[in-house]
Amino acid sequence: MNVSSKIPLAGGPNPPVNDRPAKLPFLGFGLGLRAQHYDEILSGNPPIDWFEVISENYMLPGGQPLRVLDRICECYPVVMHGVSLSIASTAPPNFEYLRGLRDLARRVEPKWISDHLCWTGVHGKNLHDLLPIPYTREALDHVVSRVQLVQDYLGRAIVLENVSTYLQFNNSEMTEWEFLAELSRRSGCWLLFDVNNVYVSAFNHGYDPHRFLEGIPVDRVAQFHMAGHSHMGTHIIDTHDHPVCEDVWDLYVAALKRFGHVSTMIERDDNIPPLDELIVEVNRTREIAAKVLPPPIRQAG
Amino acid sequence: MSDFARQQNDFQRCILTGDDSVLTEILDSPKEKRETLFGVYKHAYVSRLVEAMRSDHKLLRGYLGDEMFDAMGEAYIAANPSQHPNLRWFSQRLPDFLKASEPYSDHPVLSDLAALEKALNDAFDAEDAPVLAVADMAGFAPEAWADLRFQAHPGAFRLDLSTNASAVWLALKSDQTPPDAVALAEPCRLLIWRQDVTPMFRELATEEAMMWGEAASGIPFGVLCSMLATYDDPAGAAARGAGYLHAWVTAGLLTGVSGGS
User: How many CB pairs (< 8 A) connect A and B?
Assistant: First the structure.
């Protein structure tokens, strides 16, 4: 039940859904913050418009990670990107985790909070993976209710990312893009369109990635991810340990044409190169957008 | 249980146990069989957790070698499925596991080495807190000192080891051949703390270790000095106590002082 949208909260911590912004700001072209680059970023003021931080890396008692994060937040817009929300789990939500996420958000004041359309475990266990779901009406109803609960708890609409999947369930009743579109429409959540993940899942399941792209509502996409992967011949694994490949750059062009100016970032999680190499990729996201689209109208906030 | 919940239950069980009954609910892809596709998730589960353990225990990995470390990691994963959403805490029980599980329990240095790495990791991201300064102590009149009680910084704590694991750690850290592991007649008492952002440790003398433990539990300075007097020259106990205290304050190991007003 979407309680906060029905009950007026005088001075309460969570604004009603109707007060939430109609559109998230365009931040430009960013990068995932990684510990290997802390010193260079803090001392060099690199030409990066914004940073995405992995929420769990900073859900800690204290010490250097949080100190660095505070300094980054003073200089750059930041968004929080989690991997453990487990929004599609059928287990009860982990409210301790949600409290930690909310506390971190109060410190960071992120432009938005994102995670993935997936589950990570049930029965008190966590498999630390972005596990796939069947695209059924039952699953959709369940995830819509969980998104509404989390949004009410956090007092803001969240952003959910399409994950790379390696298998499909035989009881699915709709496509992934139909599921995402309906989820966003019913829950009010925004979508993080991971261009690489669309490419990976499309290859793995044998469909045209442009069908996915065309099935996502134009006005619900808040962010793009660009990343690399490992091609195994018969399937692709989303390893985030390579540069973005040319096919994914091509799909990025198509995504820009459909969605317009969307905050875009390079996501590298493993085999992390020097910062300069990633800035080359960030610059390429910027340059391609400049060629494909008219100049953006920057929004305050 | 809903069908969705049952499906997640089955999927997780098959990843954790190797059971493949969930394959009946999975499609082959155009280019690959479902067994291989589900195997991506099974493989990722173990490899991701082993990788987290490698990251948390770099020197234990160096000591054991990759093959033995990974086998140990897989045994730990099987015995301790992750129950926390943050990977940071996954290997917290590794020292206890190594102490209790054969063949690792036959080599106590392994548990001690893991405990030392864990302690340093814990100090690294321990809660921030104000640090007591020498000037804060100067405000107390001499007659007030006997009643002073101290609070340890959250990132400062003691660790006792039964082996020469700290010498093994130091050798591995500097890429030198570690000494043979030996059990110690007396425990090695280490003080762990964070200096700015860097975790540190040093070995404590027996009486300083005692005083740290008692001070951290709230025993006032006057009593601490009486306790020190039972360890060595009673006439010099207060001076020794003041000396230890001064070292703790200058190293940023204390976060508060109370009493003595």
Answer: 140
